[in-house]
Amino acid sequence: MKKIGFLSFGHWTPSSQSATQCASDALLQSIDLAVEAERLGMDGAYFRVHHFARQLASPFPLLAAVGARTRKIEIGTAVIDMRYENPHYMVEDAGAADLIAGGRLQLGISRGSPEQIIDGFHYFGYAPEPGQTDADMARHRTEEFLELLRGKGFAQPNPRPMFPNPPGLLRLEPHSEGLRDRIWWGAATNATAAWAAKLGMNLQSSTLKFDETGEPFHIQQAAQIRAFRAAWKEAGHTRTPRVSVSRSIFALIDERDHLYFGRNDEGDKIGFIEQDKRAIFGRTYAAEPDVLIRQLKEDQAIAEADTLLLTVPNQLGVDYNAHIMEAILTTVAPTLGWR
User: Fold this and answer.
1) Averaged over 305-314, what is the pLDDT?
2) Which of 7, 113, 153, 259 has the fewest CB atoms lying closer than 10 Å?
3) Looking at residue 266, what DSSP letter applies?
4) What's the Cα-to-Cα distance from 108 to each of 165, 173, 183, rounded to whole Å?
5) Structure confidence by residue, pLDDT tens digits, 115-134
6) For residue 118, what are the domain limits?
7) For residue 242, what is the domain's CATH number?
8) 281: part of which helix (H) or strand (E)?
9) What angle do CA 308, 213, 202 make, to 5 degrees?
10) H or E element, residue 94
């Protein structure tokens, strides 16, 4: 059994060929897609965060709105770029969104991906300390965020407050109990996966990672998951961690499916991100259900994970994306034992 969710990047394009032509479309359709996903029996609605792009950006208003419109489905991100975040303000936003959703938030965070602009976090007022990299800054902010989520008081109260205070040091409010255990780290390397495990975060592994061995993507990703679990065990955590992988999977059932994705069943790809870092990008799966089932059985990383996030082409509209999800749930997942 696996939890199955969708992952939307929330693109919009002012084009007649796009069903999502503006930011309003992207946001409102994201809410509608989460409602449809819950109706279909999906387990999660996840959203990507990109700054300075025609995509979803500030996540917490969207997460709160989805939480208010749904009742059972997990709601999350994959991922929030911690280079851009104020941990204190983020704790308040996350706590409020989680309480609105009734404790269903699953927050994926990370150092972030290559940006639309150069060092965009500078425009948000942030910069690494002397001797730090932007990755160091992201990890430091993550550690601060995790500590604040514990809900321990740390701030000295005003002796003459406007309103009465509880005794002792004050914490950020609203506090959502249990959210600390529902934070995920998007890891691109084995080392950062192990680092996340030591801090007690769940693991999100995307459709790309740095090419560390030259092996096929799914084999490298499976090794990353095993390294994460080994580090988790070594750290002595008492709860069982969650692990998700993201995949582009399309069951070719009708003419639309063949038109959009009939030629997209390709192998892994190699590229370079941030100039000199060699990365491997996982394949797109697109085939008739019986072929998909055979192919997916061979994916070692999917087998290792407890959660599968299906990347969706959001600009094709809510109805068609609901069709994509329903096709996987009904024609592929039961045979593979995911349902």
Assistant:
1) 98
2) 259
3) B
4) 33, 21, 6
5) 889 999 999 999 999 999 99
6) 3-336
7) 3.20.20.30
8) strand 277-281
9) 35
10) helix 87-100
